[in-house]
Amino acid sequence: MEDVEALKHPRSKALETLVERGFVEQVSDAAAIDQALAEGMVTFYIGYDPTAPSLHVGNLVCIMAMRLLQRCGHRPIVLLGSGTARVGDPSGRSDTRKMLDEQTIDAQVQKISEHFGHFLQMGTGAPNDAVVVDNQSWLGELRYIEFLREIGVHFTVNRMIATKTYRERLDQELPLSFIEFNYQLFQAYDFLHLYRHHGCTMQLGGSDQWGNMISGVELIRRIGGGDHGPAYCLTFPLLTTADGRKMGKTQRGAIWLHAEQLSPFDYFQYWVSCDDADVRKLLLTFTDLPKDEIEELCRAEGAALRDVKRRLAYETTRMAHGEEAAHNAQQAAAQAFGGGDDWSAVPAVGVPADPIKLVDLVTHDAVRAFPSKRAARQRIESGAVRIDGEPRTDPNEELHPEEFPAEGLRLQAGKRCRFRVVIG
């Protein structure tokens, strides 16, 4: 009852804001978390394993929660998991994660570490400046027998296999490697290390991390090692679209935060193309706009709602890529969807300097306007593809390099895809 009451009527501004903006799914002790957040600065952490050279929109939920808590006066620790990436997190997976070599892991840590400065306050000297740590600095020094004796003794196999991730693998008779089975211990140990050395008392993360996070809370309760009081954890709900799909995926792939993986123009287009039913949730989750202003914006209907989507796209792109990139993306979108011939602001995609069939162009890796050649053929024949404003309905039509103007071909594919195609 206390947990329910704390979530309905929080004392702390931080928990109140997390709840009203839709960030809270599960909590280990809502009343205690609320009290801690109300009484002073709380140090908390979220971990990010470098499994790709960029984070994506799914990770952005966690980053925005860190930003929100920091703006309420609390201190974030960004944990870069190059140590745990050497093990592989089985959470939410039905197969074994591909093992990455150390050079790849180190390179990807460097790339994803670039994201956080766009969203979090760092290096100002304030008490709640964000801190960035890498768990390889302590996990890499562990002596395994000593680790098992100090940490492993507090975990029972019975309890571990009851965890959703492990149980589902076993129930479906899918492989679960011994190294993956260790992951929960390492994540719990991360929390213990941060508790002891940084005064970190709360871990946040996605809903698939609940079992690992509770293990960390219980490990701290059992062996402690600091005068920081109890530890807590809080998870965020899985973010889905109005039609039930996991948010952050399109037919062209993941919505990456790094401009090298996804251009600011394509990032802007992802947000501006969202379903009408998702606008309010996206504004609450991914922007700093006050809730009252969001409620007022979301009263818009019809053509006026398109302006709200453009506001959403601008705010999210500005935060991830900066003011100039957001302005350029907005200008490019206005050109590409405005019906004019000037597409100079639209980012160019390059194709080889060889003749190319139309069906191959629209499914080229740089374009990927349709999920398959079969789908592309059907859409081309139905008139969904235009070049320089003219419909092209023959999938086998060959486009020759000499036909490409210096500024590129203006390729329209379906309602949303716009590309300026150049040679190179």
Textual characterization of the structure:
This protein is α/β, with parallel strands linked by helices. The protein contains 19 helices and 15 strands. It has helices at 2-8, 13-20, 30-39, 57-71, 102-112, 136-139, 144-150, 157-161, 164-171, 178-181, 183-198, 210-223, 264-272, 279-286, 291-297, 303-321, 323-336, 358-362, 373-381; strands at residues 26-27, 43-48, 75-80, 131-134, 200-206, 232-236, 249-250, 253-254, 348-351, 356-357, 385-387, 390-391, 398-399, 409-413, 417-423. The strands form 4 sheets. The protein has a 6-stranded mixed sheet, with helices on both faces. The chain has a 5-stranded mixed sheet with strand order 9-15-14-11-12. Helix 4 links the parallel strand 2 and strand 3 (75-80). Helix 11 crosses helix 12 (210-223), helix 13 (264-272) runs antiparallel to helix 16 and helix 14 runs parallel beside helix 16 (303-321). The longest helix is centred in the C-terminal third of the chain and has 19 residues, at 303-321. The protein is globular. The termini are far apart. The mean pLDDT is 89.
